[in-house]
Amino acid sequence: MSQLHTQQDGHCLNVRIEGSLTIADVTPLRVAMLAALNAPPQTVQEVRLDLQGVGEVDSAGVQLLASAAQWLRDLHVRPVLEGPAPGVEQVARAIGASDAGQCCGFQRVSEQGDPS
Amino acid sequence: MSIDMQVAVNAFLVEGRELAHELEDGLLQLEQGHDPQDRDLINAMFRAAHTIKGSAGIVGIDSLTRFTHNVESLLDRVRSGEMSLGGDTITRLLNCCDHINSLLDLAENGDMQGQGLLARSQELLDGLQASMGDQAPAPRQVEKVPSQAVQAGLPAGQGFRVWAVFGKDCLRDGMDPASAICYLSEKVVIRRRSLATSRIPDLTRIDPEDCWIALAIEAETGDVSDVRDAFEFFREATVVSVARLDASEAEIRALLEPLKAVLPDGPPAAWLDSGLLRAEDWRGAPEPTKAATPTKSDSPAAQLASTKQPGSATHAAPAAARFVRVPADRLDELIVQVGELVIASAGVDVLARETRHIRLQEAVGALMQLIDGIQSGALQLRMVPIGETFSRFQRVVRDVSQELGKKIQLDIVGGDTELDKAMVERIGDPLMHLVRNAMDHGLEPPQERVAAGKPEQGTLRLRAFHDSGSVVVEVSDDGRGLSRERIVAKAVERGLIPNADGWPDQDVWQLIFEPGFSTAEQVTNLSGRGVGMDVVKRSIESLRGTITLNSSPGHGTLMQMRLPLTLAILDGFMVGVGAARFIVPLDMVVECIELPADAMIPDQAQYLNLRGEVLPYICLREVFAIEGVRSRRPSVVVTRCGDLKTGVLVDNLHGEIQTVIKPMTGIFRHLRGISGTSILGSGDIALILDIHHMVQTTVERTARQAQTSAST
Q1: Is a pLDDT exceeding 70 seen at residue A39?
Q2: More confident residue, B347 or B557
Q3: Is the pLDDT of residue B235 over 80?
Q4: Do B197 and A58 touch (CB under 8 A)?
Q5: pLDDT band at B302 (very low <50, low <70, confident <90, very high)
Q6: In chain A, what are the domain boundaries?
Q7: Which of B247, B350, B455, B570 could form a disulfide with B150 if both were Cys (CB 3.0 to 4.6 A apart)?
Q8: B272 contacts: CB under 8 Å, gap ≥ 6
Q9: In whole angstroms, what is the distance from residue B543 CA to residue B531 CA?
Q10: Residue B451 confidence class, pLDDT cut points 50, 70, 90
Q11: Per the domain annotation, does B689 fall within a domain?
């Protein structure tokens, strides 16, 4: 079971996912993500995703995040990963969806808080 | 055990037996000369063992999991080219198939640990170990088939590159690519990996439970068997190609071919950008065929690719998805219900006709047609091809021919002929008798065949076909045929006939159906005890079938069984005696005549004069002790049972009728002369006559009466 929280901060939309990110969660989570991210106000230029509260993850979860990142880029919104996400990292790394610069298509934030 | 688990166990007991049969079938094919390098066959056998092991573990049949693990290990060595399957090993594996069935039987009776067969398990496992020990690892295929070196026989530590496109349903099926890669990374050192993100639809279009993962990996250590192990459970829906790091361009291009079929939009950019795929290699790969069938290759790694089905919806669904497994008793219940529906609708039809209400009659007529269609459809559900029953004789023929020291080839023709499942189950035993008899008595030992100018190997043929609404099942051989002299001598010795002077061969052959008749000089554990052929004949007749025999000395014997398509309905001819109704199976009716006044032969009350032919008859009124006065113009239904013609004297003829058979149950089960009942549209009950038994009973009664009169 996962929950999605959003908060807009100027040009940035902060999105926090908590709970699990597995095949059992992806269908309702997709609906929730579409509702939260769909037609973001013109002012939103960046979506900052916080996955620190995510526990169990599988390939379906990583695939959903990659799908969301793809969609945001198509809308010219920058997808950014906020903070560490150890649960997601392990699975994303296994299937080649993670490297030094991004995780599941979301750009990593540098230590200074800027996208690397 | 929970109800759910019990359901799972029951389902596995069925599946396990099917898989064991599949494994056995593969072994028999190999033994009969099938290409031992056929990777499809070897892999199918391996998968059967693997699935038995895995499923047995899930449902808690530990004995089977432990045992089949060893079978699987041996087959794994075969498919990796480390050993080959020879005569002894095949025999041992066939015994293992038998043992798997035995362990399933034990599990069915609650013994999940196989306690009753521990010693046998160990004995067989020792045999398998001996087989594996006997054979030093065979040279790797790379050495035998240099052109496939790219995929085969990767020396440990040399590394490889993998391109994997996972099947669309693998996530739904509980198969997680990440788990497989994590497992792989425990065994090898993965240097690079790249996910083809462009393949993943965006959030508005994706069904998040579909799998869109396409992955390229480069490992600097490990070999192809590591990849095979990691991707084992993805085999049915995933395309994987593996190439050694020093593979040539041509080899890589050949390997990429199956991938092109599942990546129709071209090479994923992420693979190209990461350097895990070169554009020229992709371009150089041949265009996929229209059916997008992955290439076949003998090498283990290519096998990973070639056995997988692309996940695209345009490809045929897996065979399992086209069938629904339904318990047989549910089908039986459905057919009973449909039978009741037919009976009830016939009642409605009768009432509608009585009303003389045209529109009502038309409506009922339309309803009857629909019900007729439902009945045909329901019966069709229970029709199964006879081929599965036939193929089970492969093993029997193999074992028995080895036991007898004969060379026998089983030839199966018309295996797709369908007949009622209930019928298939009941002809198994008679068929077994006939097959064993043919092998034991009919087919000669090799030296005798050669001396007779025949091929050393004899042929036993099982053939089935539809003919005039019946199914004909034949067992034939090209053996020595029946010996008229020996049959006649034995019949005379047994007092069955005084002599056979003037008897046509056809009549002589029928003597072997007499109880206790056998000409076998040597009683074997197969046949020769004189029990069998009469039992076979009775079994076939109890199915409303007939059996005939033809033989040509020196050339062989043909046994032909003619059976109805189903046991559930009957095409009959209805007759009446007073108010009672009877049904004679239509295929036994030769003709119906009104009894001529001069037809009765004076002083021979049991015979009629039918156009100069003496026809024994049975009077139904007497047989069933029906009171009342005989009709002034009785009719005779002339029936044929085998070669015997018999008349049945009745009051009225009511014509043809298709009827649903209700079998005799309870205290009526053993009544002779009646094979079942049927409920008529009027609600009356009609008895279905068993003419054969009725004639036999009448003959016996008459003989007893004659004996009694003679003694007094």
Answers
A1: no
A2: B557
A3: no
A4: no
A5: very low
A6: 2-108
A7: B247
A8: B278, B279
A9: 19
A10: very high
A11: yes
Pairing, β A12-21 against β A2-9? antiparallel
Tell me if A95 and B213 make a contact (CB, 8 A cut-off).
yes
pLDDT > 60? residue B524: no
B185 and B280 share a domain? yes
- CATH number for the domain harbouring residue B616: 2.40.50.180
Confidence of residue B711 (pLDDT cuts 50, 70, 90): low
Q: Quick count: other Cβ atoms within 10 Å of Cβ B417? A: 18
Of B125-129, B230-234, B413-417, B460-464, the one with minimum mean pLDDT is: B230-234
Q: What angle do helix axes B62-79 and B118-134 make, rounded to 10 degrees?
A: 10
B171 near A CB under 8 A: yes
**Can you tell me the distance from the alpha carbon of B221 to that of B157, in angstroms, rounded to the nearest whole number?**
4
Contact B177 A59 (CB under 8 A): yes
Instruction: Find where tokens 């007749």 sit.
Output: B541
Q: Which of A26, A67, A95 sits opposite B177 (nearest CB)?
A: A95
Same structural domain for residues B515 and B406?
A: yes
Chain B residues inside the 8 Å CB shell of A33: 203
Largest interatomic CA distance in chain B: 111
What CATH number should be reported for the domain whose range is A2-108? 3.30.750.24
Whole-number mean pLDDT of chain B?
79
Nearest alpha-carbon partner for B198 in B145, B272, B121: B272
Average pLDDT over residues B30-39: 82
DSSP characters over B338-398:
HHHHHHHHHHHHHHHHHHT-HHHHHHHHHHHHHHHHHHHHHHHHTEEETHHHHHTHHHHHH
CA-nearest residue of chain B to A91? Answer: B178
Question: Which residues of chain B neighbour A94 with C-beta distances below 8 Å?
Answer: 177-178, 181-182, 185, 193
Q: Is A33 on the interface with B (CB under 8 A)?
A: yes
Say yes or no for a CB contact (<8 Å) between B197 and A97.
yes
Listed residues B564, B593, B610: the one ending a domain: B564
The residue-averaged pLDDT of B699-710 equals 72
What is the number of domains present in chain B?
5
Quick one: B615 and B492 in the same domain?
A: no
Question: Taking CB atoms and an 8 Å cut-off, how many pairs form between chains A and B?
Answer: 83
Which residue from A minimizes the CA distance to B218? A96
- Shared domain for B416 and B553, answered yes or no, is yes
Chain A nearest-CA distance from B198, in A, is 8
Tell whether pTM > 0.90: no
pLDDT at B141 over 60: no
Would you call B208 and A63 a contact, using CB atoms and an 8 Å cutoff? yes
Q: Answer whether B197 sits within 8 Å of A62, measured CB to CB.
A: no
Q: Does the CB of A68 have a partner CB in chain B at under 8 Å?
A: yes
Contact flag A63-B213 (C-beta cutoff 8 Å): yes
- Asked whether the beta carbons of residue B215 and residue A95 sit closer than 8 angstroms, the reply is yes
Q: Between B176, B193, B197, which is nearest A58 by CB? A: B176
Is residue B236 very low, low, confident or very high in pLDDT (cuts 50, 70, 90)? low
Which of A2, A15, A63 should be substituted to probe chain B, the one whose Cβ sees the most B Cβ atoms within 10 Å?
Answer: A63
Q: Do B197 and A66 touch (CB under 8 A)?
A: yes
User: pLDDT by residue (tens digit) across B152-176?
Assistant: 334 445 788 999 999 888 888 778 8
**Which residues lie below 8 Å from residue B118, measured CB to CB, with a gap of 6+?**
none
Nearest chain B residue to A38 by CA distance is B204
- Amino acid letter at A68? A
Please give the torsion angle defined by the CA atoms of residues B203, B209, B214 and B219, in that order, rounded to the nearest 10 degrees.
Answer: 120
* pLDDT > 50? residue B105: yes
Is residue B182 domain-resident? yes
pLDDT at B599 over 60: yes
Residues of B in contact with A59 (CB under 8 A): 171, 176-178, 211, 213
pLDDT at B378 over 80: yes
- Domain residues for the domain of B288 are 146-314
Residue B305 confidence (pLDDT): 39
Q: Is pLDDT of A13 > 50? A: yes
First to last CA, chain A: 31
Minimal Cα–Cα distance from A95 to chain B, Å? Answer: 6
* Structure token pair of residue B339: 């039978």
pLDDT over threshold 90, residue B546: no
